[in-house]
Fold this protein.
Amino acid sequence: MLNYVTTNPGKVREATEYLGDGVTQLEFDYTEVQSPDLGPIAARGAREAYRHAGEPVLVDDAGLFVDGLDGFPGPYSSYVEETVGIERVQTLVAAEDDHRAAFRCVIAYCDGEGFDATPDPIDRDDRIAAAATDPGEDDGEAAGLPVKLFEGVVRGRIVEPRGGGGFGYDPIFEHNGKTLAEMSTEEKNAISHRGRALAKFAEWFAER
Ligand code: ITT
């Protein structure tokens, strides 16, 4: 059984739609280390969650990076959604000339066993970065646990809120004329940051 580590039911819906019933939600609030990149946050979380669960885990860290705001809110997306709210983020972006944005998702897999180093440099770099930022006392062994990272990105632009589906920033993120909240889960998975990361993971996992 694969544990999808998140407190967000929207993420679980999308992961289950993609990966099937072999996925179950694990509501575990891992420590989110401070980093401008999602990779080290997800990698560190996957090690902590694996240590907690003792079973294979997938940690999913996502963020909205707005071009006109120099990548803000990025790794602070969750905090900004809760405190500022998506409507005010949209207003902030509307005042800028550039409304383009990217949604990024990094999925980190850890099952406590080794696997070949990935050719994707994000894994090697982030393993070093995650180990370096890993301050936990009993982390000695866990810091060395191999973590495999899968990244997905979708580009779009920030618009006034539309649509009743999805979650989070979906109503203000438009891709090819539709906001993510105007898409079904299947449609969103086909183009989204998470869908792309899940596709990379599924391909790798099937061969493992
Ligand atoms: P977990 O950390 O427990 O997984 P979270 O919702 O805090 O839940 P993130 O930190 O990865 O997860 O999410 C950062 C923010 O981006 C948060 O406000 C989410 O609602 C939002 N978000 C993540 N994926 C999204 C998506 O596919 N569409 C719209 N918003 C999304």
